[in-house]
Amino acid sequence: RAKSSGRNEAVFFDEEMHRSSLARMEMQTLLPRAIERGELRVHYQPLVDIDTGEAKGFEALVRWEQPGVGLVSPDDFIPLAEESGQIVAVGEWVLGTALADAQYWRSTVPGAADLRIAINLSARQLQHPGLVDMVAAALASSGMDPAAVELEITETVLMDDVKNSLDTLTRLRRLGVGVAIDDFGTGYSSLSYLRQLPVTTLKIDGTFIDGLGGAADEHARPIVEAIISLARALGLSVIAEGVETTQQLTVLRKLDARLGQGYHWARPMPYEDVAPWLRAQGRSGLLKHG
Ligand code: C2E
Ligand code: MG
Ligand code: MG
Ligand code: MG
Predict the structure, then answer these.
(1) Cα angle 28, 34, 35; round to 5
(2) Can you tell me the distance from the alpha carbon of 201 to that of 162, in angstroms, rounded to the nearest whole number?
(3) Distances (CA, A) of 216 to 151, 183, 220
(4) Which UniProt keywords apply (predicted)?
(5) Which of 45, 120, 252, 265 gets mutated to test ligand 1 (max ligand atoms within 8 A of its CB)?
(6) Which of 98, 92, 22 minimizes the C-alpha distance to 60?
(7) Which atom of ligand 1 is nearest to the CA of 94?
(8) Does the beta carbon of 94 sit less than 6 angstroms from any atom of ligand 1?
């Protein structure tokens, strides 16, 4: 009996694998046309001043509006695009779109003239020889101030090939853009490399923020505190990711964190919602303090 149920499981597993590899192939086939057909969307999530609740900028987060399926999350197609190399075209589209959108809000929404924009880069993009020229071209065609642009790269990707990272980041920084280490604390940064790499911001991973103020506080708080002082010592900005509750916000204020991002203030929103959201924020003076 054990044997036959084992066999059934194996069959089931094969079918699952078959189905999922079909879905993967299908997505990889459809993705190039998705760009042409305008099925990709950028959603924007506010980066907020923890003291005042004011939006300082937005992070651009891609989605795929697949006909008959709905909004597909980046976690479900970015890894596939990364595997196939399609990420380079997707990334170019996201960067061009996000810079143009940000520049539009800066020039049309009252009080938004200094708005910042953050864009994610993947491993394959960082290795791509055309990256720096692509960023330069997107800056030029959007007219966006490079000093208000930050490129987010995960810790693991940066540390994976420090020599290439150092070279590419140096050239990106020469364009005037900032570089943030995304999901900081989940990878394996060497502190000496961290000092050498020309980064400007550490984004504390949401898993650490999650623990603040609750049952896991005594585990999470020392880590968050250590990352904040490390950033200070290195002259870097810090952003606390994934802030969801008032308790977390209270602890972050005690730790003197300056910038945050998370559902507590706002979820990522479609392009059309950003200008009205900014205008409403301006009218109400400040966002909720929690
Ligand atoms: P990330 O860059 O670390 O982005 C933060 C993720 O956390 C986003 O998920 C965001 O919606 C989510 N988030 C924000 N606030 C909260 C919160 O309070 N609680 C929780 N639980 N989650 C929160 P999203 O949009 O699904 O993106 C997932 C990942 O996909 C991103 O992680 C990034 O690594 C990647 N990604 C998104 N857009 C792009 C892109 O244009 N290019 C590349 N290469 N990667 C992208
Ligand atoms: Mg990010
Ligand atoms: Mg992150
Ligand atoms: Mg992430």
Answers:
(1) 115
(2) 17
(3) 31, 19, 6
(4) Coiled coil
(5) 120
(6) 98
(7) 41
(8) yes
Beta-carbon-side half-sphere exposure of residue 126 (alpha carbons within 13 Å): 27
Q: Tell whether ligand 1 has an atom less than 6 A from the beta carbon of residue 206.
A: yes
Cβ atoms within 10 Å, residue 32: 14
Atom of ligand 1 nearest to the CA of 241: 15
Q: Is residue 289 very low, low, confident or very high in pLDDT (cuts 50, 70, 90)?
A: very low
Mean pLDDT, residues 20-28 taken together: 74
| pTM exceeds 0.90 | yes
The pLDDT tens digits for 35-56 are 989 999 999 999 999 999 999 9
Tell me what the pLDDT averaged over the chain comes to. 91
Which residues, other chains included, contact 53 with Cβ-Cβ below 8 Å and sequence gap of 6+?
A: 265, 286, 287, 288, 289
Q: Which atom of ligand 1 is nearest to the CA of 125?
A: 44
Q: What is the pLDDT of residues 130-169, one digit of tens each?
A: 999 999 999 999 999 999 999 999 999 999 999 999 999 9
Residue 86 in contact with ligand 1 by CB distance below 6 A: no
Give the integer Cα–Cα distance in Å for 190 and 160. Answer: 11
What separation in Å is there between the alpha carbon of 182 and the centre of ligand 4? 7
Residue scoring higher pLDDT (284 or 95): 95
Q: Which two tokens stand for residue 26?
A: 């299908």
Which residue, judged by its Cα, is nearest atom 37 of ligand 1?
61
- Using DSSP's 3-state secondary structure scheme, residue 258 falls into coil
Region 65-77 average pLDDT? 92
- Tokens describing residue 261: 């991002």
Nearest ligand to the CA atom of 184: 3
Q: Tokens 């929103």, residue?
A: 269
